[in-house]
Design brief:
heterodimer, A: mainly alpha, 4 helices, B: 2 domains
Chain lengths: 87, 207
């Protein structure tokens, strides 16, 4: 079966394709589309890279003073009020 | 070996149960486990250090107060993410007191997922910049998104929640998460193209 995917349909499926949740047949149609459509190939590639660069960012360290203030606030609350034990 | 979830954290239902029974040490362990992620999430949504710290504290204090209401049907992390997102959005609303930032803002049907920039990027575009420069570029791009898109992107692609978890944390439907994520990703792609495109290429080279 030949691919009948338009560029617009490709865009609608882009997310699921990137998240790897499309079925085999749709995957084939998408891959057929990008081999024929250089623009959509570029969109796919650069969107993939967009996600990758964000995933590569390490979580920032929680500043020590922020962490210390958080723990103090939690301790104050714990002293003030013990949660009721579950039945 | 203790059981691990796909996120690589130890199964923590026992820890949550102990915290619920009033074990301060167990609750503190949960705080230590997630404070960094909650802070990052709050900072991404509020874009402000002071607000992020307030959100961080409020999130864990509320979690402590309402621990008995946490039924354990969802993951503890998803549950506190929901608290943190609500607190963060409240901060945004307060800051722009004249403009509300509703999470359920009506969206048009996605016609503005128009792609304008079609340029090839470098193979490893992030290597063109120092870590600090890259962090700034990425932060500013996220900052440029509307809160409805920014929040979904942060949950899905930075905090790596599943579509279902993000929907649960935001109190919106799975299709809404999907359509907002698509628009967020495409808008970020446009913004980053300016920095990451291969020199010498232009839009017309591939048309």
């Amino acid at each position: 079966m030949t691919s009948l995917l338009t560029c617009k349909e490709f865009l609608q499926e882009l997310n699921d394709y990137l998240d790897d949740v499309v079925d085999v047949q749709l995957r084939r149609h998408i891959e057929a589309h990008i081999t024929e459509c250089p623009n959509c190939f570029v969109i796919l590639d650069t969107t993939k890279k967009t996600i990758q660069v964000y995933k590569g960012v390490q979580p920032q360290v929680l500043p020590e003073d922020v962490h210390a203030r958080l723990m103090r606030a939690v301790e104050r609350r714990q002293t003030a009020k013990k949660p009721a034990a579950s039945p | 070996m203790p059981a691990t979830t796909e996120a690589g954290v130890f199964d923590e239902s026992g820890l949550v149960a102990r915290a619920r029974d009033g074990d301060s040490g167990a609750f503190n362990e949960l705080v230590n486990r997630y404070s960094r992620k909650i802070y990052r999430l709050a900072k991404h949504i509020t874009q402000n250090d002071e607000d992020a710290e307030d959100v961080l504290q409020e999130t864990f204090l509320k979690a402590y107060e309402h621990l008995n209401g946490f039924q354990g049907q969802s993951k503890f992390y998803t549950w506190i993410v929901r608290i943190a997102v609500n607190e963060s959005l409240m901060k945004l609303r307060k800051r722009k007191s004249d403009r509300t930032v509703p999470l359920d803002e009506p969206l048009d049907t996605g016609e503005d997922t128009v792609v304008r920039e079609i340029a090839v990027w470098d193979e490893n575009p992030e290597q063109k910049y120092s870590r600090e420069e890259l962090a700034q570029i990425l932060d500013e791009a996220v900052q440029g998104l509307k809160p409805v898109f920014r929040t979904v992107f942060v949950l899905r692609d930075i905090e790596e929640l599943s579509t279902e978890e993000a929907a649960e944390a935001l109190g919106i439907s799975v299709p809404a998460v999907k359509s907002r994520l698509l628009r967020a990703r495409l808008q970020l792609r446009e913004k980053l193209s300016r920095f990451f495109k291969r020199k010498g290429d232009d839009v017309f080279a591939y048309l």
